[in-house]
Design goal:
The chain has 265 residues and is an alpha/beta fold. Helices cover 22% and strands 20% of the residues.
Length: 265
Amino acid sequence: MTGTEKTPAATPSFRLAYVPGATPAKWVRIWNERLPGIPLTLVPVAAEEAADVLRRGDADAGLLRLPVDRTFFSAIPLYTETTVVLVPKDHVVSAVEEIALADLADEIVQHPLDDVMDWERPPGRPAFERPATTADAVELVAAGVGLLVVPQSLARLHHRRDLTYRPVTDAPGSDVALVWPEERTTDQVEDFIGIVRGRTVNSSRGRAQAPAQQEKKKPAAGGARKAPARSAGRPKPGARQAGKQAGKQTAKQQPGKRGKPRKRS
């Protein structure tokens, strides 16, 4: 390699982390349609590890559950999930359409160590020991040991035929947001922000814009040029001369006037 040769630039890419229950499929599809030359890689992460993954730079941005450290991260809230209680199908709660937190006061409610709910005070009675993960808590509920309150997407993710869930009307929702390190707002992050915010390809704020409109075509060389419009009161070329000739002809046709004869002295 000679000294004049340049190292080829790295192909840009985008890595998107997402926590269990988050659904990036719609935005990934739009990305692939708009930016087919920039690969998007999905990075599944546990909820409790998601922030550290972004801090280390193992992903460019992520779909995380709030709250996050806003002194380090930027975040755009995307949606709020309904909170539900997961119960065995033969539990009394399954006979109603929805419940309130007060209805769980006498129930053992599992509170796993990776709980994504931002509780000020968890509902129900605490279990003897906290399960390590949400998946472990689901197994305990299936075994008849307590109930579990989670975002609806996690209840669907851990679906079992022997379990069901019901909305909890007064429980806090779970906010899902697009999160990224503020100091690492790359071009690809800006592109993904435009997608999740619903900007069109032609948006002036988005980077992935449609090609600019073509410039107005100039007249071809040697082509016909349109004659300039004339004012209504201005005669056409030659009209003045034709008018003079017509006047002379008229004068010849009219008999001339004769004066009185002059007296001879």
